[in-house]
Design goal:
There is one protein chain. By secondary structure, this protein is mainly α. It has two domains: 85 residues; 58 residues, no CATH class. It is built from eight helices and no strands. The longest helix has 18 residues. 35% of the residues are buried.
Length: 145
């Protein structure tokens, strides 16, 4: 991060800010995750870089889910489908999976399964590394209900 800041490489700064937010979300440290996301927001708006934008909204949604704010999570995950992000099948698959998690949080197992299956099919069609994660999530969903 220090080097990216020294050379003012805005894309790398944005990318790293989101990755730090992701790390803190995974640790359950929502305050630190929020701090990095807040710092990243102006860059996301300025750069309009599809990868950074998608990652930003994904982490905002993950943060909201961790906090139990299902509506905010859904709004963030829907933002992943906005603009030109859905032209990338990996982003679309990630949005489907994220919205599947929202559906499950709302108790709608059928919708969760449908969205999760759509995500898995897209990930598998492009041989994306997240496919096993979604498959395991769907298997756990089927095992629980």
């Amino acid at each position: 991060m220090q080097l990216a800041r020294q050379i003012s490489h805005q894309e790398w700064i944005g990318y790293l800010l989101v990755k730090f937010a992701e790390l803190y979300n995974c640790e359950g440290n929502t305050l630190e995750a929020e701090r990095y996301l807040r710092e990243c927001l102006p860059l996301t708006r300025e750069l309009r870089h599809p990868l950074i934008t998608c990652m930003y909204f994904c982490e905002c949604g993950n943060l909201a889910l961790l906090r139990g704010d299902i509506e905010a999570a859904e709004t963030a995950f829907h933002q992943m489908q906005a603009d030109k992000l859905t032209s990338n099948p990996a982003f679309l698959a990630l949005a489907h999976f994220s919205l599947a998690r929202v559906a499950l949080a709302r108790g709608n197992r059928q919708q969760a399964r449908e969205l999760g299956t759509m995500s898995l099919e897209l990930f598998e069609s492009i041989h994306y590394h997240e496919a096993p994660t979604v498959k395991a999530w769907l298997d756990a969903l089927d095992a629980d209900g």
